[in-house]
Structures are given as structure tokens and as C-alpha cells.
Specification:
Layout lengths: L1 E5 L3 H13 L3 E5 L2 H10 L4 E5 L7 H11 L4 E6 L4 H9 L4 E4 L4 H14 L7 E4 L2 E4 L4 E4 L2 E2 L4 H12 L7 H8 L10 H13 L5 E4 L3 E4 L2
Parallel strand pairs: 1-2, 1-3, 3-4, 4-5
Antiparallel strand pairs: 6-7, 7-8, 8-9, 10-11
Helix pairs in contact: 2-3, 6-8
Length: 219
């Protein structure tokens, strides 16, 4: 899952991003609405977490832009205002969900996962293929009943490949969906991560390289 966090409280924004990255999400962070609009014009996000009360270009303006863009990006609005009127107004702007500060990080994660499932064709929270089971809610992975110890990026790559349901996924698409914008696109990070993931998945081989095209899952 690729997430944009737009929050002017820098400590909060950085803490949220750090926590989400530990859960294998690709996260870009900005601290104002203008920067959020710039990122949205460049990258595709599954979910945008917007502080409604950012200075300058507010979260309301960014939300309107997303709603009118047809990008499919879901919006989780953050606000310090707990009143029903504020929540109704935010949802009326096109937000998909609302969370009042202060919030529990676990609740933020649960809401993001729910929104992500709505940003693509409906997918179950548990993905299975060729004996591989990935539980998005519990953030666990196994093959043939044996737990897999995966790094955050290995988990993210496996998630993308399982979502593809056997279709070939290019290295470029993996880079876009599993890494944030700070990753050098000319490095061999995708190939290295796929190589270690393939080893951890074990035998019989299930993660295949399709020459000059990309990677796919399937025995």
C-alpha cells in the first residue's frame, strides 16, 4: 500500500510514517497542502491521510482536488475537532473516513487497511495462492502452514504479487507500489528484494522472473 501523509505537526507526521513503514507500507510525507497537491500530481497513492487544518492550502482543498481528480485515491481526514458537524462537512467534501485527534495508531492502521481494500477491486483481508497465506490485518505471512519471517519490503512485494493473482508485475510497478519516492529507481533494490523473498518462500519455486518483463507468483 502506498500512502501520502499530509500533516503540519511534523513530529506526529514523522511518527505516523515511521509506524506505517514498519508495517510494510510505502509512505511519503509532506507538511503542508501545497506540497500534498504536488505529490498527488506525480505519484499514485492508495490512501491520503490529510490533516484538515493545515495552514495555506487546507486539507479541505486537497480533499476536493482528490475527489475531483478521479484518481481512486481514498482520503482519511484527521482533525482536532470532534463535533458531528465537522465530520459531516469533511465527508461532504469527498473524504472516505474521518479520525479525530488524538487517535490510537492501531485504529489509524485499521482504517487505512479498510480504505485500501476499497481503492482496488474488492480483495479479502487474507490472500492465498500456492500454499502462501498473507493476512493483511495481522501482518503475517506463511507457506504451507509455516510462518515466513519477512522484512517490511519483502512483505510488501509479496502483497503486490498476490494482489496480481498470477499476472506478471513489472519491476517499475513493484517500485511504485512498495517503495516511497526516496528510493533511487536506478538501484537494484527490487531485484535484491525479490531474490531474498524467493529464497524465503522455499521449494518448490513459486516466485518466477519473466525475462525483460517482471515477476509473477505461481507454481
Amino acid at each position: 500500500m502506498r500512502v501520502l501523509v499530509a500533516e503540519d505537526e511534523r513530529v506526529l507526521a514523522d511518527m505516523v510514517a515511521k509506524g506505517l513503514r514498519r508495517l510494510s507500507m510505502a509512505v511519503d510525507v509532506v507538511y503542508d497542502g501545497e506540497s500534498a497537491l504536488e505529490k498527488l500530481g506525480i505519484n499514485r497513492y492508495d490512501v491520503a491521510v490529510l490533516d484538515r487544518d493545515m495552514p495555506g492550502r487546507t486539507g479541505d482543498e486537497v480533499c476536493r482536488h482528490i475527489a475531483g481528480s478521479g484518481s481512486g485515491t481514498r482520503v482519511l481526514m484527521l482533525t482536532a475537532a470532534a463535533g458531528i458537524r465537522e465530520r459531516v462537512e469533511g465527508l461532504g467534501l469527498g473524504a472516505d473516513d474521518y479520525l479525530t485527534k488524538p487517535f490510537a495508531f492501531a485504529e489509524l492502521v485499521a482504517r487505512l487497511q479498510a480504505l485500501s481494500r476499497r481503492s482496488v477491486a474488492a480483495l479479502p483481508p487474507v490472500l492465498e495462492q500456492d500454499g502462501i497465506v498473507l493476512d493483511v490485518t495481522r501482518h503475517t505471512a506463511s507457506r504451507d502452514g509455516l510462518a515466513l519471517s519477512l522484512s517490511p519490503k519483502e512483505y510488501a512485494v509479496l502483497h503486490v504479487l498476490l494482489r496480481a493473482e498470477g499476472r506478471v508485475v513489472s519491476a517499475e510497478d513493484l517500485l511504485e507500489q512498495a517503495w516511497d519516492e526516496n528510493t533511487d529507481p536506478f538501484t537494484n533494490t527490487v531485484r535484491t528484494t525479490v531474490m531474498t523473498l524467493r529464497r524465503k518462500l522455499g521449494d518448490p519455486p513459486v516466485l518466477h522472473t519473466v525475462a525483460r518483463i517482471g515477476y509473477r507468483l505461481g507454481e
